Amino acid sequence: MTTSHPDEDAILPPGGVAFTSFLTLYCHAMDAESKHPILHDTKSIEIAAAFDGMLADSVDTLAQNIRSRRIRSDIVTHIAMRAKKYDEYVQEFLGTFPHGVVVNIGCGFDSRFVRIDNGLVQYYDLDLPEIMAIRSRFFTDSDRYHSIASSILEFSWINAISGHHGPFLFLAEGVFMYLPENDVRDLVRRLTQMFPGSELVCEVVNKKWLSGIYRRIVEFKLQRELHLGLDVTYQSGLAHSNEMEEWDLRIRFLDDWSYLDSYQGRFLWLRVLRHVQFIRYTQWTVHYRLG
Ligand SMILES: C[S@@+](CC[C@H](N)C(=O)[O-])C[C@H]1O[C@@H](n2cnc3c(N)ncnc32)[C@H](O)[C@@H]1O
What we know:
The chain is of the alpha/beta class and 291 residues long. Helices cover 41% and strands 15% of the residues. Helix 1 crosses helix 2.
């Protein structure tokens, strides 16, 4: 774990897993700038505007695409829907536990604390030191808002939050699929052991996308369509929503959510697709009680 040091001119080299946070940030900004925003993340507009100049000289395709707001509208919609749903998970948790502790693992440039602050929550944002260094230009720590600059996989960050009584809500939005399965399992087991009664909300991909032809489709999408680097690929997933229960007897599956659930009454065909397991459980969110 390191302390972040703001470097006014630094911007990440595009392509790596950390740069995926720029993509989600610009999706939030494009949603907020649209006629009918889903998420209303106005902070993202401010951050994206600051990045625009820094990305101007980049020859990287992804950097140029996001700077020019050339992101497919369905991706923007899905990322905004996902963030809104995670806001709702937090609001529901804080409805029951107003003094609860929320830990956003792999936060990127998300500004959820600004959106959900109830005046009582203890909120932690955690990401790689290079992201947290850039974040610190836009977000300031306080007595209830804390940033942790650390790899998720250096488990010493857990000590930083263990002084609280909890209960804890852990979020991992668009993150676990980029980490090796053993590491995700180790982390979830550790959280279960150390924070009994806590909750975990995380996005997962279906395991079938990790091998064979499916893997090649994922790599095509990440690298050819989104222009992410060769090392950005899905490394872990679940076969079904209950799978984490097999990792520790104390883990209990609570519910799951797919993008298709949030289209509500808008399109009949999407309501139908919700019930097609193959599609619903391609990339979705699971919610567990740990311990
Ligand atoms: C797709 S972005 C999602 C960001 C944010 N959760 C959101 O939805 O806007 C994935 C994030 O996971 C972070 N990440 C990936 N591997 C990580 C690791 N080992 N430790 C800490 N953060 C990591 C990346 O830096 C990036 O910010």
